[in-house]
Amino acid sequence: MAQVLIELSCLLESCPDLNKHPWHIPGTTGIVLVTCVCNCVNTVHTQKPHFLAVHCQEVGGKNYEASMSHVDSFVKELLSSEAMKEYSRARVYLDENYKSQEHFTALGSFYFIHDSLKNIHQYDFKAKKFRKVAGKETCSETLETTPMLEKEKFPQDYFPECKWSRKGFIRTRWALPDCVFDLVNIHLFHDASNLVAWEKSPSVYSGTRQKALGYVLDRITDQRYERLPYFVFGDFNFRLDSKQVIESLCSTATMQTVRAAETNEVDKLIFRESDNDRKVVLQLEKKLFNYANQDIFRENNGTSLLQFDKELSVFKDRLHELEISFPPSYPYSEDSNQGKEYMNTRCPAWCDRILMSQSARDLVLKVSPHPNTPKVARRLRGAPPALVMNV
């Protein structure tokens, strides 16, 4: 029986004390896969997975033109690290070709196979057959012509205002001794403005994500290839229903609308308590969500807010999820000294998810007599979720 671990991560850019980080690469200008490395090393030591899958989004960070040149050096460092010495087979796929705007997704998919796991095969989508996995390979820039994966950027008319951004998906297909499945790395559209997201329920951004996710599901289940169990995990950018959650958090507050002098458009919303010296409960701007009591997002893993997490419900017949047992995964502070705090840019939400088809869920649950036993959990504060399963 093989233990498969599915994990989410992200490439982070530099922070002020990055050079002090033990995984900083000497000679770089300060890019480190902080969350990924900490999670990978911790996972290898504690879980000892036979097959480790790590999906990253925003490879190279937001300033990818300046940072991308360091990613390859980092990957080499990771593959040769002491922690990964028993993983002599690996596949790394990095979409680094930022000069090709019509194709660039900034996605990164890492797969590590333990030496004890024999006869692992990966699907060749061009030849339509499985090939045995041997050695370590890293592929970047030309992912469009790589037969061992499917990569797509969403059609331009899917993008808000038809402006290109780094959103799309990568699919790989794997055959272990006892099962075959697809792994899909995904990055969906974010909320561009808190004020627009607040205007109606559900928000216009929710509709855009729904359309894009539906596109991915249609593509990975169409007639071109045999339909198999699939896991879709990455940054879905799922948000809480902004209008409803704000109405709940500010139920006893009064709202003040501040408009821009030049355009008369809403510039900010200020919610104040009716008494208590009219204390500000929430200030909302395009890129500001400053709520007075962050503890509500952490208490009992934020479960009181799960009632506003509704975007997945549209796909209840196609996608399944195990019980969430961690606080909202976004937007944690990028300051290493404030890793337990949320930034005040967006309403905290469970953006990073591990979703699966019904047949994939059956794979996860087949060794458990109690359907609610497995959970999507997190080992480090601020780290994205991970799922361990035996197949």
UniProtKB/TrEMBL annotation:
One BP term from GO: phosphatidylinositol dephosphorylation
A single MF term (Gene Ontology): inositol-polyphosphate 5-phosphatase activity
Pfam families: Exo_endo_phos2 (PF22669)
Domain Inositol polyphosphate-related phosphatase: 27-386
EC number of the protein: 3.1.3.56
Entry's family note: Belongs to the inositol 1,4,5-trisphosphate 5-phosphatase type I family.
Protein name: inositol-polyphosphate 5-phosphatase
Taxonomic source organism: Gouania willdenowi (Blunt-snouted clingfish)
